[in-house]
Amino acid sequence: MSSMLFDPYTERFGRLIAEYCLDLRPREHLLIRAGIPGLEGVRSLYKAAVERGAYPIVLLGDSVMSELFYRHAPRELLEFESPLELLIQERVEATARIISSDHTKPLTSADPEKLRLRSRAMRRLSEVFMRRDSEGSLKWVVTIYPTPADAQEAGFSPLEWREFIFKAMKLDRPDPVAEWRRFAEEQRRIRDALSKADELRLEGPGISLTVRVGGRTWIEDDGRNNMPGGEVFTAPHEDATEGTVAFDYPAVWRGIEVEGVKLVFRRGRVVEATAHRGEEHLRKLLDTDEGARVLGEFAFGLNYDITRHTKQILLDEKIGGTIHMALGAAYPRTGGKNQSSIHWDMVKDMKKATVKADGDTIYQNGKFIKETL
Fold first, then answer.
1. In this structure, are 204 and 268 located in the same domain?
2. Is residue 363 part of a domain?
3. Which end of the chain has the least Cβ crowding within 10 Å, N or C?
4. Other Cβ atoms closer than 10 A to 102
5. Taking a C-beta distance cutoff of 8 angstroms, is the pair 274, 135 a contact?
6. What is the pLDDT along the chain (373 residues), one digit of tens a residue?
7. What's the structural domain count of the chain?
8. What is the phi/psi pair of residue 308, to 5°?
9. Of 241, 243, 244, residue with least CA distance to 212
10. What is the extent of the structural domain holding 324?
C-alpha cells in the first residue's frame, strides 16, 4: 500500500532506486549520501530500502560544510586519507548518492591548489570504488532529487525543474521500472553495434577527432548506476586519441565552471588546453597527476527526454544527441587502464556532426542510423 507521506512521484523515486537501480536485499548495508535539501528523496529511498529488508545509513551535508573545510583545513588535513572512509568504501554492499544542492557553486572561491591536494588524497577511495565496481562487489547509483538551487542554476522554475527531473527518470509513467527495462534493450543494440568497431572518426562543428576503441568493452547505462541513465560508454586506448574538440557546454568540476574548453590530443594525451573562462582551474586539474591528461571515458548521450543543458553533469552527459568525454580515471570493467584521482566529464553537441566506425557512417545529426544497428 502506498504511503500518504509522499506524492506519487516521490514514492516512485524511492522504489525505483531501491528495486531497479540497486536491487536491495535483506541485511545489505546501503550508504545514502545527500544534501540536506534532498531530505524528502532520502526519506523515500530510506522507506523503500527498509521495506526490502536493507539497512540504510544516511550521511547529510551542505554547501557551508564544504566551504568550511576548504577555508579552514590545514595542509595535513587536505592530504589526510581517512581509514574510516576507506573501511566504509570497502564494506558496504550498496551506495546511493543523491545530488540535492542548497548552493551550486560552494567552492567558487576555493584555492585551486587546495582542491588539487584534496583530489590527490581521495585517490585511494576512487581506486577502491573502481576495483569494487569492476569486481561486481558494490552496487551503486548516483541520482538527483529536485531542489530550488539546482533549478535556479539550470535556468528552470522550481516546478518546471521538478517536472523535468521526474520525466527524465520516467517517474511520470505508471510503471517506471518497466519503462527502464524497455529502454535498456534499445541501448543494448547500440552497445552491440559499437562493440564491433576498432576506430571512431568524429567530424562536425568544433570537432575533428579520432578515437580507438577496438578490444574495449562498451557498457550501456540503463539507469542502474546513473538515474536518470541513457548513455553507452567505453574507455578509449590510452595512447591513440588524435585531434581537436571544442566543448559547447561549461565543464563543471565540484561547482566550478570552466567555459569554452578546447583540447588538442596527440598520441592520447592533451597537449594543448584553453578555455574562455576558468583556464587556471583547467590547467590545475590537468596537472593533478599523470593520468589527468588522458581520456578515461568516451560516451554517447541517448536520453532524449533530457532536452536542455542544465549544468548538472549527471543529466547533461545523457542529453540525446551528444557525446561526452572524461579526462582521468577509466572504469576498469571497460578495459581501460588509465588511472587518476579525477574523472571530469565534458559534453559536446553532435546534432550537426557525423561519426564513422571503421569508415562507415553509423551516427548522423544526433542519432544512430537504425540500419547500422
1. yes
2. yes
3. N
4. 17
5. no
6. 345 677 899 999 999 999 999 999 999 999 999 999 999 999 999 999 999 999 999 999 999 999 999 999 999 999 999 999 999 999 999 999 999 999 988 888 888 889 889 988 998 998 999 899 888 999 999 999 999 999 999 999 999 999 999 999 999 998 999 999 999 999 999 999 999 999 999 999 999 999 999 999 999 999 999 999 999 999 999 999 999 999 999 998 877 889 999 999 999 999 999 999 999 999 999 998 999 999 999 999 999 999 999 988 899 999 999 999 999 999 888 999 999 989 999 999 999 999 999 999 999 999 999 877 6
7. 2
8. -135, 150
9. 241
10. 197-372
C-alpha cell at 178: 518497466
- For 250, the grid coordinates are 561549461
Same domain, residue pair 222 and 353: yes
Say if residue 85 is in the same domain as residue 218. no
Q: Does a cis peptide bond (omega within 30 degrees of 0) precede residue 228?
A: yes
CATH of the domain at 107: 3.40.1830.10
345 conformational bin, left if phi > 0, alpha if psi -120 to 50, beta if neither: beta
Instruction: Characterize 299-333 residue by residue with b for buried, 16 or more Cβ atoms within 10 angstroms of its Cβ, and e for exposed.
Output: bbbbbebbeebbbbbbbbbbbbbbbbbbbbbbbbe
Q: In the block, which residue shows the cell 541517448?
A: 302
What distance in Å separates the CA atoms of residue 101 and residue 106, rounded to the nearest whole number?
10
- Whether residue 142 lies inside any domain: the answer is yes
Cell numbers 546534432 label which residue? 351
The three-state secondary structure class of 213 is coil
